Amino acid sequence: MLGVGRRGPLGRDAEPAGGGRPPQDRLDEREAWVVLAGARGVGPVTFQRLLASYGSAWAVLHDAAADGAAERLVAASAGLDAPPTLSPASALTVVAAAAEPHRALEAVRRSGVGVVTYRDPAYPSRLRRIELPPPVLFVAGEPSALEPAHAVALVGTRRPTAVGRATAGRIAEAVGGRGATVVSGLAYGIDAAAHSAAVRQGAPTVAVVGGGHAHLYPAGHRGLAAAIIAGGGAVVSEFAPDVPPSRGTFPRRNRIISGLSDATVVIEAGARSGALTTAAWALEQGRSLFLVPGRLDDPAVAGSLAFLREAAPEARIVAGIAELLEDLGLDVPQAVAHPRDRRALATAAGLGEAESTVAAALQSGAASVDELVLATGLSGATILAAITTLELRGLALEVLGRYQPSGPLAEPTAVQTHGAYARRAGRPAA
């Protein structure tokens, strides 16, 4: 029986071919789903049509082992007044998979990933609601990470500017600090900046990859993927472990990124950026969409600005991080210090109530004046006065207009809910 979770996906050894019943007849229905969904050329539409025609994945594989199966499979993939979606060549891959199903199941076992099918209770509810839900998900890490209370996709170009990369990190820290899971695609650039910021903060993050786990792409992000898993997140794919990434797999990946999320935020996207595909999917799926604007005539944001012009008012502008948190419904901090912690800090450091409150908010991850106002409820003038006092005492440090704890405040405390993993994992390269 195929299982779900961090450990190997197979609860028992796949039966070898030869002897007794034909190998495809020894499968249970979940195993048949994995074999059929893993056959090259069988996408969500084809899978659904074959299932509707035959009644079960097991029946598809059973018939695929009989003479003349390829033609029947092609015909079965046709819809009402719609041409077949399964090509003759792809039909032969289904025939081959049915003849040796243990190969596909063994590849899953070797990869060490878990399996979640559409019929499983663990299948993420957000993904069930999209038009083309993947029938099978291959999950490395924690499957429950795919069903958080709040999830925000952060996407953008693989070649961001320094400002774009920093913005992705700031937004990831902000939404992660409010208890939301960051979803992205593990690519270089904006994706990596978002994942890395979440990992550093110790917040869960989910990476959706455009190929099988045995062909993790880009290979340079294996360390980042391991850190995501170690931090309670997940790396997920709709492709079987032995499927290499290709130009056709990434657009399919993008619909899952938006499908797992309540909202998608595009940080930087050029005119031909794949992030715009994710943006289009978000609107198609009825999810919220936000785009970070940029300077006019800047090619790094040409696609974002064009999308805003065409898709407004459904696509909304990011006017600031505090405003984005409010628009996402995440403007209530999830990790503020308890008043008793503030009093202890005030006593230990000789701080007043306002300085102690701001110090606790800094330790919780708030870094700009706007974020500190949201986190504390204090006025901007009070925040600035408190920050000045903290800087004079060596307890706060300004870096490029943002503030961070310094000195004793930078040491682990009860209000740093995720700090232990962030220190253990270090800072993976973006």
Describe what you observe in this structure:
The chain is elongated. The two termini are 38 Å apart. The strands form 2 sheets. Strands 1-2-6-5-4-3-7-8-9 form a 9-stranded mixed sheet, with helices on both faces. A two-stranded antiparallel sheet has the order 10-11. Helix 16 (353-364) crosses helix 18. It has helices at 29-38, 44-54, 57-64, 69-76, 88-99, 101-111, 125-128, 162-177, 190-201, 222-230, 249-259, 275-284, 302-311, 321-327, 339-349, 353-364, 369-376, 380-392, 419-425, and strands at 114-117, 136-141, 151-155, 181-184, 205-208, 234-237, 263-266, 288-291, 315-317, 396-399, 402-405. It is 44% helix and 11% strand. It is α/β, with parallel strands linked by helices and 430 residues long. The chain has 3 domains: 23-110; 125-327, Rossmann fold; 339-414, Orthogonal Bundle (Arc Repressor Mutant, subunit A). The chain has 19 helices and 11 strands. Strand 8, helix 13 (302-311) and strand 9 (315-317) form a beta-alpha-beta unit.
